């Protein structure tokens, strides 16, 4: 008769074998995660069958890793990508710089990072927030910023509420900035410190070239940036300067190929832009600062 640990090892090996046969590259890692996620043997069988049928891992687990934390999500919502940590990092850097500027000349970035009163004066909008990965991660780093996360997809908004509201952020549903109700709009218009936007930026014709996990299982509304991929960015950039405080920044994720156009749109939108690139994350973003 097998001991408990032998039974467990047999089960792990069996799951790894099934996943490997289905073409999963990281079968050992995925087996461990699926076994952790499943509440029973039947549930595990169900998860394995779905994974073998090509469903992405993260909605099956119920979470995706982002900035070292778990973002809760399910089917029908965009899975946050590691490259988007570039936007988060730059937004976080900006919060710290604002705190340094507003505190005494002798203060260092390390010391002001915990200045909660000053942090509370920093308003951030995460537009096209999906599950709220960027918004939640920024709130974890800076718990007192005023965070507004908006998306037009009710499924994404539900997940964002679960991820962002417990950390003190506000989540709204609607088309881009229209999701922000009039009262809040009047309070923050022209005084926002940071806008982050990982909006859809895949040209419509290129969605068919994406990996099946994205192409078949993520809603096209989360990927489709219109004929040139820039339709949503164009609208966000066109409006951003009216929301930003003088010196405030807009951070937009884009592709290396599209970056020159994203940059030109920012310039035309009254922002001083530059391209950011992180090779280790394979990430490209454009930052635009409102002058004045
Ligand atoms: C590429 S996903 C990014 C989600 C999230 N920022 C992230 O990085 O995980 C783009 C998101 O934009 C949302 N979206 C698309 N069109 C929108 C619109 N007109 N107004 C608000 N959100 C929109 C989609 O629902 C989707 O959640």
UniProtKB/TrEMBL annotation:
This is peptide chain release factor N(5)-glutamine methyltransferase. InterPro entries: HemK-like, MeTrfrase_put, N5-glutamine_MTase, SAM-dependent_MTases_sf, Small_mtfrase_dom. GO terms for biological process: methylation. CDD domains: AdoMet_MTases. SUPFAM superfamilies: S-adenosyl-L-methionine-dependent methyltransferases. It comes from the Bacteria. Pfam families: MTS (PF05175). GO terms for molecular function: peptide chain release factor N(5)-glutamine methyltransferase activity. NCBIfam families: hemK_fam, PrmC_rel_meth. It catalyses: L-glutaminyl-[peptide chain release factor] + S-adenosyl-L-methionine = N(5)-methyl-L-glutaminyl-[peptide chain release factor] + S-adenosyl-L-homocysteine + H(+). The keyword Ribosomal protein does not apply. Its EC number is 2.1.1.297. It is an enzyme of class 2 (transferase). Residues 123-166 form the Methyltransferase small domain. Keywords: Methyltransferase, S-adenosyl-L-methionine, Transferase. Signal peptide: none annotated.
